[in-house]
Amino acid sequence: MKENGRKCYKCGYSPAPLHRFPKPGRTNIMRCELWAKYCFPDDSWWLPEFQNELHSRHLMLCTKHFKRSSFLDNFGKRLIRSAAPDEECDKEMDNLTTSIADDQSNAFIKKEPEAEVRVQMTDPEDMAIPDTSNSRENFSSSDYEQSLECELPKPLAFNEFAKKRKLEDFHNESLAVTLRDINIQLHVLTNQLDDCFDNFGKYISSMLRSMPMQNALELQPKIVALITSVGVSNNECRISQSHENCS
């Protein structure tokens, strides 16, 4: 219960793999300063007393504030001794989260019901003659083509297209890296006792809760397919081994 109650000081994520502020010492002076400055740039982050207070308060940061090269494993649970949070990770996550939030808000906009159209009988003599001033017969060929060009939607600017493409590439790369880590962990567990799959289920559940909803929804069917494929291959190996033993 105590572990589940903790959360990231920077972004508030919980539950997620968390890393405590380092304790000041002779060998990690620079690291303690980087951690303190990252969260408290306007305070006395360079003072050892201030850094020691952060360690004593059990303040923590989650995995997404560190680069992948800062970890000893593929699951973001163990940091190297010199690891420090990176502001570039925050910028990438902010851009991705903003893009996903915009997509979700556009997807769930509630449309207002159309007003009921009442048909009224009219006298044919009172009906207005349709306006044909904008028809092709009233324009020259060059003017008509120019009017069509004005009505066509303008293509995206190069900068907007490049930004959108970069966000899509980052999103796909992030999902691919997550699936690769899950695949590695799954193959390790298949060679161990069945009880280990309980921890694997908790690991998957914690990972999905710590990421944006759109990412989690995209990963769920892929994770199920990955687990199913590994289970089928293991059963085939067991069946072939039993046939060999019988022969």
UniProtKB/TrEMBL annotation:
Q: What is this protein called?
A: THAP-type domain-containing protein
Q: Which organism is it from?
A: Parnassius mnemosyne
